[in-house]
């Protein structure tokens, strides 16, 4: 894990880089907001130290492989979920792929709004209340 300092458009940035041990993927995190190279260098040293101690999101990913595995599993489940929707499976899939179903749901909501408005306007028409 290492870090570097670069200047772009008059601003200094810190880039923290590392390779994921499980996948070999190159991970890069940019930090901005430094006016001088000296402040960026100081921040780089502190950020690298924090990551090496396992602090922060990148530090936890660097030091705790179970977190990476857990995030990978969650991402795979989300991919599967959205793939099912795209294929028209389940209620959300049907709603996203079948215009007729959407129009019918919209029509039902419109009718429900009309009914509720009429109940508020003419409650005696729908509710009979008698005591004794």
What does this structure look like?
This protein is α+β, with helices and mostly antiparallel strands. The protein has two domains: 62 residues, no CATH class; 52 residues, no CATH class. It is built from six helices and three strands, in the order βββαααααα. The protein has a three-stranded antiparallel beta sheet, with helices on one face. Strand 2 and strand 3 form a beta hairpin. The longest helix has 23 residues. It is elongated and about 85 Å long. It starts with a strand and ends in a 6-residue tail after the last helix.
Fill in the keyword field for this structure.
132 residues; alpha+beta; 2 domains; three-stranded antiparallel sheet; 6 helices; 61% helix
Write the SSE topology.
Blueprint: E1 2-8, E2 11-19, E3 26-34, H1 37-52, H2 56-63, H3 65-86, H4 90-97, H5 99-121, H6 123-126
Antiparallel strand pairs: 1-2, 2-3
């Amino acid at each position: 894990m290492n870090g570097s300092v670069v200047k772009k458009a008059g601003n200094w940035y810190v880039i923290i880089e590392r390779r994921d041990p499980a996948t070999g993927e190159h991970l890069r995190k940019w930090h901005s907001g430094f006016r001088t190279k000296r402040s960026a260098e100081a921040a780089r040293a502190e950020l690298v130290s924090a990551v090496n101690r396992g602090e922060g999101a990148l530090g936890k990913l660097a030091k705790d492989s179970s977190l990476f595995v857990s995030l990978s599993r969650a991402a795979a489940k989300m991919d599967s979920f959205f793939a099912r929707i795209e294929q028209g499976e389940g209620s959300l899939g049907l709603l996203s792929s079948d215009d007729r179903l959407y129009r019918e749901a919209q029509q039902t909501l419109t009718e429900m709004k009309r009914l509720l408005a009429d109940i508020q306007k003419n409650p005696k028409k729908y509710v009979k209340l008698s005591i004794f």
